[in-house]
Design a protein that fits this description.
about 290 residues; Rossmann fold; six-stranded mixed β-sheet; four-stranded antiparallel β-sheet; 7 helices; 13 strands; binds adenosine-5'-triphosphate
Amino acid sequence: MTDLSSTSVAVSLPSSLHSLIEVENAAVVLGGRTIWQNVQLTVQQGEFLAILGPNGAGKSTLLKALLGLLPLAAGTITVLGHPARRGNAAIGYVPQRRHFEADVHVRGRSIVRLGLDGGQWGFPLPFIQRRQARMAAARVQEAIDLVGATAYADRSIGELSGGEQQRLLIAQALITSPQILVLDEPLDSLDLRNQQGVAGVIRQVSRETGAAVLIVAHDINPLLAAVDRVVYVAHGQVEVGTPQAVITTETLSRLYNTPIEVLRARDGCIVVVGQPEEEISYHAHRAR
Ligand SMILES: Nc1ncnc2c1ncn2[C@@H]1O[C@H](COP(=O)(O)OP(=O)(O)OP(=O)(O)O)[C@@H](O)[C@H]1O
């Protein structure tokens, strides 16, 4: 059951940063195939990490391993000092490709509230139920405020735009005050303005709550203003570092095992040429 003793969604920041996630020499094998191996990754409080790479490289697999949904073939993953485990309330998760059709007539606010153990909270005594309900409502409102969704939270989720739905799903993931926020392609199918808007909301939430963010994306473009490090997954290898260190001709050519050229424009934009998946992709890079 969710602890509602505090109505605050925010996570207090300690005086010094500490590791929330430690991945040591991890490997995952699915269907007899090694998806990735030798993964080393440490995630600090408040960090914003983008997980990049071509289709099928193993980005979602990495998130699932962090969530304890997949066994490791080798190595360890430690989350907040304990082995990664299923159902960890310290992790808020926005899964891939969740979209509500127009005929879904559930208020946005109700969708957010489902984050409180799927609405399973409550006690048998009426006066405690009322108190719990008030606290839950306050928690829901705080999460809605955090993502800037107050104006449309009482409308049917099915009639909201993709960006509005995405903000409410992020609010749902924030409801348990997670110390880690994990999002699988939350910018997928949004237009550029909404991609930047949702990315900005996630960055803002991370700053306000101290939550670490791991976000899977195909396009680094709308994220580079916010991102601290990238986790690049390709051909069974995982490279971790700042965008300036990882999105380079040398590193991407090595990861893809084919010549890749990374060009940097005077305005800070990065252009990547020659990725097998797509011939040219643009990575806008803004100095941070
Ligand atoms: N249960 C499974 N059994 C066998 N192979 C699997 C299983 N689940 C996933 N895979 C394979 O593992 C690989 C990595 O999948 P994953 O979903 O992590 O890729 P991804 O990088 O997130 O891709 P995308 O960008 O297309 O979402 C894919 O080749 C996929 O087919």
